[in-house]
Amino acid sequence: MAHDDAPQVTVLPPDTEKIKKLWKVAGILGLITLLEFAVAFGVPHEMKELRVWTFVLMTIVKAAYIVGEFMHLRYEAKFLLWSILIPMVFVVWMLVAFVYEGIHVGLARP
Amino acid sequence: MASTPSVTVPAPGQTVWDGGVSPMNASYGKLMMWFFLLSDAFTFATLLIAYGMVRSSHHAYEGAVEVFKFSQAYWPIPEKVFASIPFFHGLNAPLVFVGLMTFILIMSSVTMVLAVEAGHRMDRAAVEKWMLWTIIGGLTFLSCQAWEWSHFIHGAMEGDAVVEGTKFFGANLSTNQYGPPDFAAFFFFITGFHGFHVFSGVLLNFLIYYNTVTGVYDRRGHYEMVEKVGLYWHFVDLVWVFVFTFFYLV
Q1: Who among B23, B26, B117 is closest to A18 (CB)?
Q2: Phi, psi of B75 (to 5 degrees)
Q3: Using CB atoms, which residue from A15, A58, A59 is nearest to B117?
Q4: Which fold has domain B28-249?
């Protein structure tokens, strides 16, 4: 009897707790972005250092939420977590070093 | 009923590194996606580090912000460059459109993670719904980025006079009206590379959506593929968060 061979799949009901938490994280990301805009337009351009450091800090917080919660890395095996995070430390080091180099290149130009 | 992809635990007396098990408690496919994303993070890091060095080697604008004019002598203030919205010709709305693009991409990340959650419950209808929203979000972002490029290339209304006295509108591969040639070069390269990743992400998402609709993952017994492309999509969103900060805000 050629009944369709669709497998019997048991669909579980939505995990409301988890879904609420995901929307909460989404809200936090949206809020931080709004704060970034507030700083972008509220803090005068003359206070460049404060602006840049605020943006960098907020971006790192957003990245932590995206990687930790959305990509679930916070709940993965610790070895996997560190094998992703430790190389990024070197990337940040390189970024800081080369911005510093760039400043000196600019000063050395005629 | 749901089956899980092959993740094994060590036999008694064996450590997790003695072979035949999954040391990081993740399946092969998921692990490889994570390490691919790490390598892709290095690629974007090279672009952003190069941008950081080149930008800091250019002079910054020293004067009052209100009287800012585009010039080849200094790096432009981004909110003076990106101040237009489609269909509102002439309206000065600094960073509004790019803010909208950021919101769209973050929302598509949220719909993606909801699709993954639905996949864990074998809820095919919900996976289809959330995957479709993610694809639409991705396509919308790409359309917005295409408009941004078009507007950048065609130039703003007046085409500020370049410091050397010539009037130049928009941007090409050697000159642009906004600032030094490096500004346009990095804009195209970084947003273009990111946009290419969004494009391939949309293609992958559509493939997985198609597989979901035809019941591939129901037959397989698990929706881990949704989770894997979800990782890629979140990575794309993550890169945009960094690009948005370092190119448009700083």
Answers
A1: B117
A2: -70, 135
A3: A15
A4: Four Helix Bundle (Hemerythrin (Met), subunit A) (1.20.120)
| Cα-based angle B164, B168, B172 (whole degrees, multiple of 5) | 115
Nearest CA of chain B to the CA of A26: how many Å? Answer: 7
Residue of A nearest to B113 (CA): A70
The two structure tokens encoding residue B114: 């909801």
Report residues of chain A scoring pLDDT below 70: 1-6
Q: CA–CA separation, B84 vs B150, rounded Å?
A: 12
Instruction: Please give the ipTM for the structure prediction.
Output: 0.91
Average pLDDT, stretch B196-221? 97
Dihedral over alpha carbons B45, B46, B48, B51 (to 10 degrees) = 170
Q: Inter-chain contact A94–B49, Cβ cutoff 8 Å?
A: yes
Residue B161 dihedral angles phi and psi, to the nearest 5°: -65, 130
Q: Please tell me whether residue B18 adopts helix, strand or coil conformation.
A: coil
Q: Any idea what the Cα angle at residue B124 is, between residues B119 and B129, rounded to 5°?
A: 95
Nearest CA in chain B to A84: B38
B165 Cα distance to chain centroid: 37
Q: Is the pLDDT of residue B1 over 50?
A: no
